[in-house]
Amino acid sequence: MTTRDQYVAYIQRAYDDVTQETVNSGHPIQFGDDFVGGGHSAGIPAAGSPSAGYPWVKKIVGSGPPTVALDTNSVGGTISCALTATSEAEDAGLYWNDSLSYDVTKYGMVEWRAKLAVLPTGVAGAAVGVGSAWVSGGFLSFSRYLGFGWAASGALLVYALDGVQTAVSVAAKQIGGSAITTDTTTSHLYRIDWSNSSDIIFYVDGNRVNAVGSVTWTATAGANSNMQPWAEVYKASGTGVATLTIDKIDMFNSR
Questions:
Q1: What one-character-per-residue DSSP string does the chain give?
Q2: Structural domain count of the chain
Q3: Closest CA to 23 of 14, 31, 32
Q4: Can you give the C-alpha Rg of the chain in angstroms?
Q5: Containing structural domain, residue 211
Q6: Fewest C-beta in 10 Å: which of 47, 91, 230, 234?
Q7: CATH number, domain containing residue 10
């Protein structure tokens, strides 16, 4: 591994040239979590009841019940969000209890390292990214979002909605290549860079997967562009299952 530097909008970022993982940044606002340590093993608090000093809560919908929990003794620390086969509406989400602290009209990015451990079946779906406050119905029901999502086939999609423009939902593709279908054995790096509102870039393992100019963001004032990180599996009904395993997240933003 060699750590290399790049500059985005004159802001320095350091990254691993093998995995393409961002390891440091000159952004003034920074957040990172590898999901290691005793704070995670104590259990993730429920949505609406956050614990002082701990950023995450879990949203559980359904009697199955679906789960959001630290994976025991996982190397490097991982948290899994999992649906059950119970025929019902379910949601298993990890987020900041609706603390919308990142402004996507400013220079910044989010980077998730994640694995789709169990492909979604039926009407189940999975997503990672940033979004507005939680509402029922899954990630695509939020009023604003930027995210990667998976449907039952494992096909990877790019999602965006700024509350002004028509929602974007397109297949993630290597530039000049074919659509990406995610495997269930490997963690991949999912990065969304919103440093340029006229061209928001989605990367998988350091490779761009959306066409230039295909995702833009209306520079709406104030809270309309404020977001929080999201990882979630969900379904509206039926017996579909899915498991999303999160290994790490890093977020950077300008003030």
A1: --EEEEEETTEEEEEETTT--EEEE--SEEEEE---SHHHHT-PPBTT-PPTT---EEEEESSS--EEEEPTT-TT--EEEE--SSSS-EEEEEE-TT---EETTSSEEEEEEEEEEE---TT-EEEEEEESS--TT-GGGSSSEEEEEE-TT-BEEEEEE-SSSPPEEEE-B-TTSPBPB--SS--EEEEEE-S-TTS-EEEETTEE-S-TTSS------GGGGEEEEEEEEEESSSS---EEEEEEEEEEE--
A2: 1
A3: 14
A4: 17
A5: 3-253
A6: 47
A7: 2.60.120.200
pTM of the shown model: 0.90
- Cβ burial of 252 (10 Å; 0-12, 13-18, 19+) is buried
How does 141-153 read in b/e, with b if 16+ C-beta sit within 10 Å?
Answer: ebebbbbbbbbee
Supply 236's token pair: 């509206």
Residue-by-residue pLDDT tens, the chain, 255 positions: 565 656 565 566 666 666 767 766 666 678 889 998 777 877 899 999 999 889 999 999 999 899 999 998 888 899 999 999 999 999 999 999 999 999 999 889 999 999 999 999 999 999 999 999 999 888 889 999 999 999 877 889 999 999 888 889 888 887 667 777 777 888 999 999 998 999 999 999 999 999 999 999 987 756 789 999 999 999 999 999 999 999 999 998 888
